[in-house]
Write a structure and sequence with these properties.
Structural class: alpha+beta
Helix content: 40-55%
CATH architecture of the largest domain: 2-Layer Sandwich
Number of domains: 4
Strand content: 25-35%
CATH topology of the largest domain: Heat Shock Protein 90
Shape: rod-shaped
CATH class of the largest domain: Alpha Beta
Radius of gyration: 54 Å
CATH superfamily of the largest domain: Histidine kinase-like ATPase, C-terminal domain
Number of helices: 11
Order of helices and strands: HEEEEHHHEEEEHHHEHEEHEEHHEE
Largest sheet: 5 strands, mixed
Strand order of the largest sheet: 10-12-13-15-14
Number of strands: 15
Length: 524
């Protein structure tokens, strides 16, 4: 994958994620604002209904009281009929004619203003609707003379709407002489508010209080305070004919924000989870792309290294074949034997390299049989030391062994165990600049067989330490071919230790060297 294409892909994914997050955030913000507006509208409608209901109840109370007093007085002091309306209708088929009349009867009563005021009265006019219907029937007697018969029906009923308009001002003046806590009950007010809010699906705790010209009155909920938390909504109550009022009902909602957010919390949470999943998937995808890109680069390096490693033996074998075919050497048995040994050694070296690659692949698939047996780890370690001792001597180096571990037994495959130690020693030699100085120490610590291999080579930085056990990874130092290898040694060590239920830890400082610590469980 081209670098520019990869960067463009990553930027596009990031831009898409940012767009999704912004859209989701805007949707949540818009939804909250919409629900807040719906909440405010429902509350205002509820309070308006409560204020109207309170005033209706008080007016109805005084109307009922007035009717009781009026009935107890008996006959009015004065009465007269106003605005008489009449119209006629006739039916020729039945010889019937009707006269309809409607009038308003006005009666005057002197009503006491207050029981505590002696002789204090006020003149109140009561209005009633008077409706009469007179039916005239025309007929002929035996002498063929016209005869008229009449029937009259009379109905008298109160005019409710007129009562309300007529008495509201009068009753309002009387009610204003009483304090508000005698006109309005806090418990009843709470029931009214709760009923109106429930009808509009507003189910959240609230507190209320009634104020008179900005001062708190005795009418309030149990937990209401002037510094009440949450938004407050107000509505005037007990409005007079001039449209003014000295009382104000204030309702606060301490948990309004929680109530509004709870209405979208389900969808918002699901949206957040899905967005988070998309982010995680995109992050994993980017990580995998980067990882695959690095693996691809490492494999390319591995192929280059393998090609380089094979090129030298093949060139040597080719030269040996040319030398054998030379007529001057064909009769020299010593030269032919030397050339054949050279070809055999180079062929064996290529075979060992291929076997190493195949062995790693088989170990990862679990298809390589392990010959489990009880071994003496010190003998296996000494065999690995002997295997690399000549290489160390050729580079004028030294390996210092300190076998502090007592005689014990490990359950392992001796061949793989020896190869594991050999790989670690071989790495210590390859990455030592100049004469290698290697220390190998064994001990038994807390029931674990411990092997420490340290060197004074080039060391590694912290980023390299995270990657050294990956397949095909090689520490880079200048030209990738300056240190021979395929990047499989430490991967092989890690795989063998996993099969042996062991662990490996590495400490390294760039320019000072590295220390590998292996811990293996002892056979009980």
């Amino acid at each position: 994958m081209r670098k520019t294409y990869f960067i463009s892909l990553v930027l596009f994914m990031i831009f898409s994620l940012a767009g999704i997050i912004l859209i989701q955030g805007y949707w949540i913000y818009t939804s909250i604002n919409t629900h807040e507006q719906e909440f405010s509208m429902a509350v205002r409608q509820s309070l308006a209904s409560v204020a109207e209901d309170i005033q209706e109840r008080e007016l109805r109370h005084y109307l009922n009281k007035y009717k009781e007093i009026r009935d107890s007085i008996g006959q009015p002091q004065n009465s007269q009929i106003r605005q008489v309306l009449s119209f006629t209708d006739s039916d020729n088929a039945s010889n019937l004619s009707s006269l309809f009349t409607f009038g308003i009867l006005e009666e005057e009563y002197n009503i006491p203003i207050s029981a505590n005021e002696k002789g204090g009265t006020s003149t109140v006019f009561d209005l009633k609707g008077i409706e009469t219907r007179t039916i005239f029937k025309e007929a002929f007697d035996p002498e063929n003379n016209r005869v008229f018969s009449t029937e009259t029906y009379k109905d008298e009923s109160p005019i409710e709407l007129v009562d309300k308009v007529t008495y509201q001002s009068f009753f309002s003046k009387i009610a204003n002489t009483f304090p508000v806590h005698k006109r309005l009950n806090a418990f009843e007010l709470q029931l009214l508010i709760n009923r109106e809010l429930n009808q509009r699906n507003v189910v959240t705790p609230f507190e209320f209080g009634v104020y008179s010209d900005g001062l708190a009155t005795k009418v309030s909920s149990n937990n209401y305070a002037e510094t009440q938390k949450g938004p407050q909504y107000s509505v005037p109550i007990f409005i007079d004919n001039q449209g003014s009022s000295q009382y104000e009902l204030i309702v606060s909602f301490p948990e309004k924000d929680l109530y509004v957010r709870s209405s979208i919390i389900g969808v918002a949470s699901l949206s957040f989870i899905l967005t988070l999943l998309i982010i995680v998937v995109c992050a994993v995808a980017i990580y995998q792309i980067i990882k695959q890109k690095k693996i691809s680069e490492v494999k390319s390096d591995f192929i280059n290294n393998m090609s380089h490693e094979f090129k030298t033996p093949l060139a040597t074998i080719n030269l040996a074949i040319d030398a054998i075919e030379n007529p001057q050497n064909i009769k020299d048995e010593k030269k032919i034997s030397r050339y054949l040994n050279m070809m055999r050694e180079e062929n064996k070296r290529m075979k060992d390299q291929v076997d190493t690659v195949l062995m790693i692949s088989q170990l990862e698939r679990g298809s390589t049989p392990m010959e489990w047996e009880l071994i003496d780890p010190q003998d296996a370690i000494q065999g690995a030391v002997n295997h690399v001792s000549l290489i160390i001597q050729n580079r004028q180096g030294a390996i210092h062994t300190d076998f502090q571990a007592p005689a014990c037994a490990l359950r392992a495959d001796k061949n793989h165990f020896t190869n594991m130690i050999t790989n670690l020693l071989d790495n210590a030699i390859k990455y030592s600049e100049g004469a290698p100085q290697i220390a190998l120490k064994t001990a038994v610590v807390e029931g674990q067989y411990t092997i420490k291999i340290s060197d004074k080579g080039m060391g590694m930085d912290q980023e390299t330490l995270k990657l050294i056990f990956q397949k095909f990874y090689r520490v880079q130092s200048g030209n990738i071919h300056n240190i021979k290898g395929h990047g499989l040694g430490l991967s092989y060590v890690k795989k063998i230790l996993e099969l042996l239920n062991g662990t490996i830890h590495v400490r390294s400082t760039l320019g000072e060297g590295s220390e590998f610590t292996i811990q293996l469980p002892l056979e009980s």
